[in-house]
Write a structure and sequence with these properties.
This protein has 370 residues and is α/β, with parallel strands linked by helices. It folds into 2 domains: 125 residues, Beta Barrel (Lyase, Ornithine Decarboxylase, Chain A, domain 1), CATH 2.40.37.20; 222 residues, Alanine racemase (TIM Barrel, Alpha-Beta Barrel), CATH 3.20.20. The protein contains 10 helices and 17 strands. It has an 8-stranded parallel sheet. Strands 10-11-14-13-12-15 form a 6-stranded antiparallel β-barrel. The radius of gyration is 21 Å and the shape is globular. The two termini are 24 Å apart.
């Protein structure tokens, strides 16, 4: 484990740390990794976690050691960071639009196994032309919209698009994928989440069967979300799952019941800096520390206090957090705040502090932030 960044913090108890600081409970992370690896085994699917949640090489290696077949990335910087970290199998689940992304894909494909997600011929052609010109074959997956209505080809249009993708020089059609993110929007209704998530997996598997009937051979049928991790991969024909948030957990997953509070590994350590208003008090974790990701509680909070004082981080300025509903606090008191969204939080920080038993055991650089 690396201790090159801020080594003076290793060995310190958390009450001596500079704030705000992101704390990652290592035993909880290891437990979460083991639990999701078992979920994937029970479904008989490969696990390819989305790395944007942690952006830490240390976490990626733990996931691979637990049986993950590779990692998923969203940005060019994440792809480059994973390749630099020696990760041998990367899925870039984002259209390679623009010269910078095309260049990143070609460089990465020379160094590791890279699969790139596309959802149209328009997003694939520049990569095909560049890869053919340089003699670098790049694997691609066709994204299918199974209900989120963000990116992804309509299921009824997947076959003609796949035919034309497979004919492009320089590209190899490796499979199909989806992000069933609409499952999270269903809220705290586990039966409905199971129904909708399973339907998304079935729809993707049906698209894959249509491709096979047309003599195309999609190897991977890949679903991906934490909210759908116990439903979408259950569909017959799905071969891979790509959950991400599970590794740290967050308040939004707790709010809808997909992550147990005990399985949340990420908190922000913050100090009270002003009590002039009584309630609320002001802490040193504002939106630059927490991110401004919305709350699925529906009350606008930017974080939830999980230490003994209770309360919620109701709103924030850049360096000031407005904490309401806590038991009496004094200037200098410490609170720990669970973020709404772990992925957004990670991207706000240069490093996180790995803790075990209230002691810092390592400093993990956050990679690929840009």
């Amino acid at each position: 484990m690396t201790t090159t960044a801020l080594p003076d913090l290793v060995g310190r108890p958390i009450d001596e740390l500079p704030t705000p600081a992101v704390l990652i409970d290592v035993p909880t992370v290891r437990r979460n990794i083991a639990q999701m690896a078992q979920v994937a085994r029970d479904f008989g699917v490969a696990l390819r976690p989305h790395w944007k949640t942690s952006k830490c090489a240390e976490v990626a290696r733990m996931q691979l050691e637990a049986g993950a077949v590779g990692l998923t990335a969203a940005t060019a910087a994440e792809v480059e960071a994973l390749v630099d970290a020696g990760i041998g199998d990367v899925f870039w689940a984002y259209p390679p639009v623009g010269p910078h992304r095309v260049g990143t894909a070609l460089r990465a494909a020379r160094r590791t196994r890279l699969i790139v997600g596309v959802d149209s011929l328009e997003s694939a052609r520049p990569l095909a032309e560049a890869s053919a010109a340089e003699g670098v074959d790049v694997e691609v997956r066709l994204e299918v919209d199974t209900g989120l209505r963000r990116t992804g080809v309509d299921p009824d249009d997947a076959l003609p698009v796949a035919r034309r993708l497979a004919a492009l020089p320089g590209l190899m059609l490796e499979g199909v994928f989806t992000h069933e993110g609409h499952v999270q929007g269903l809220g705290a209704d586990p039966e409905r989440r199971m129904e909708v998530g399973t339907a998304a997996g079935r729809l993707l598997a049906e698209v894959a069967e249509r491709l096979r009937a047309d003599e195309l051979a999609p190897e991977s049928v890949s679903v991906g979300s934490t909210a759908g991790a116990r439903s979408a991969p259950s569909a017959a024909g799905v071969t891979e799952a790509r959950p991400g948030t599970y590794v740290y957990g967050d308040e939004n997953q707790v709010a809808i019941g997909t992550v147990d509070p005990a399985d949340t590994a990420s908190t922000v350590l913050s100090r009270v800096v002003s009590t002039q208003r009584g309630d609320p008090v002001v802490v040193d974790a504002g939106i630059k520390a927490m991110s401004s990701d919305g709350s699925l509680h529906g009350d606008g909070r930017i974080g939830t206090v999980v230490s003994d004082s209770g309360g919620v981080l109701a709103t924030g300025y850049e360096e000031h957090g407005v904490l309401r509903g806590a038991s009496p606090l004094r200037v200098g008191d410490l609170v720990r705040i669970r973020p709404n969204h772990a992925c957004g939080l990670t991207n706000m920080h240069d490093h996180v502090l790995a803790v075990d038993g209230g002691i810092v055991v390592d400093v993990w650089p956050v990679l690929g932030r840009h």
